[in-house]
Amino acid sequence: TPAEAPKPPVKEIIRKTITGYVGFANLPNQWHRKATAKGFAFNLMVCGESGLGKTTLVNTLFAKSLEDQGVLPSKVDKGIGPEVPKTVEITNITANIEESGVRCRLTVVDTPGFGDYINNDLAWRPILDNVEKRFNDYLDAENAPTRTQLRNLETDKRIHALLYFIQPTGHSLKPIDIEVMKRLCDRVNLIPVIAKADTLTDDEVNTFKARVRADIEHHGIKTYKPEENDYDDEDTIMENREFMAKMPFAVVGSLTQIELPGGRRVRGRKYPWGVIEVDNEDHCDFVKLREMLVRTHMEELKDRTAQTLYESYRTEKLMAMGISQDASVFKEISPQAKLEEERQLHEAKLAKMENEMKLVFAQKVAEKEQKLRQSEEELYARHREMKEQLEKQKQEIEQKKIRIEAGTPTMEVKTGKRGKFSLGR
Ligand code: GDP
User: Fold this and answer.
1) Where is the Septin-type G domain (predicted)?
2) What is the pLDDT of residues 212-224, one digit of tens each?
3) Looking at ligand 1, which residue's alpha carbon is closest to its atom 7?
4) Is the reported ipTM for this assembly greater than 0.85?
5) Ligand 1 centroid to 53 CA: how many Å?
6) Distances (CA, A) of 76 to 39, 223, 287, 356
7) CATH number for the domain whose boundaries are 25-323
8) Alpha carbons 57 and 329: distance in angstroms, whole number
9) Does residue 77 line the site of ligand 1, with CB under 6 A?
10) What angle do CA 269, 273, 279 make, to 5 degrees?
11) How do the domains of the chain map onto residue ranges?
12) Is the model's pTM score more than 0.90?
């Protein structure tokens, strides 16, 4: 009966959500672990006239770490005067800084102050030489048969950023500043800073900044600009904008702790009219500069050094050594240029084929001519031969004729079988 028919089984839908995850989101952690374990290196060069506070600023930047290690001689607060020691040669100071388990091998390269030269026209020379020598050493390490050295942090001595100190004159850039920055800007990430900004009022700083920016633009000096990428998030875009708005950074350096009326202790410079705080963003751009150098843009500065500045040095150097690359590699590939190139190639091919055909034709003609000449000669030869024979026969007949006319029998007795006469029969 229909009542006994089996019911279709109820299908239960099993819903599952993926609880685990594939795992590549962990990649940043891997990088982080690797980078912290290995540590990283950063090479900073400071450059500018003597007495502009280069040493003081570097000390202020990496304050505790460098001083604790006693590597940077502090020249702070000795007052400006002849007794201030001047940087007369390029010096290298390296310190290992550690912060929350992250190790940084910081190298600060101090360059000679320009005031120390009698002729300042070539003040840029030793600095550029030094920067290029570092590129060259790296190139040598790259070209060495074993390149394990490259993994060593100490091998990379390339300058990742150059702080150029501008005297706070309040007017405009000096010719020497323009010359030096022009020479260096293709080889380093150039970051101009206005030294001792505490000697100018806020208004003066702003006007001076505008002048310096205009001068830099006018002379085609390429200062470091953060790269803009499509994938940048809003924070990065803001950071980059702020960075560009502050350029050139007006900085104040000091390691002196000053006690403010409220009891707060700050690093700064004390004046009768008040205290300029180094670490206060309203007082100077020191904090912005440090943030950018250390926190936000260090990696980008290093990338640009390796991928743009060093690469162009490397290409120039290798080309100068006569190592060339297929020129087409450097050509910008536009569709039109490509078509034109293809057309030229095709034409060249046609011309080559035509030439080959002409050659083959000329060769065939020459061969034919040679054959014709040969058969002509043969014909001539045969003709000559026949003519000679005929001549001979003619002579013989003539002789016969003479003999017949003279009456002598011409019958010759031959001893051949048929020609034998049997006279006796
Ligand atoms: P360097 O020759 O460029 O390395 O200059 P130093 O760092 O030796 O500084 C020279 C002098 O300038 C020292 O007496 C410092 O105290 C002073 N100085 C350094 N930084 C500043 C600053 O930001 N403002 C002022 N007013 N003086 C500074």
Assistant:
1) 38-320
2) 999 999 999 999 9
3) 53
4) yes
5) 3
6) 30, 29, 19, 82
7) 3.40.50.300
8) 44
9) yes
10) 35
11) 25-323, 333-387
12) no
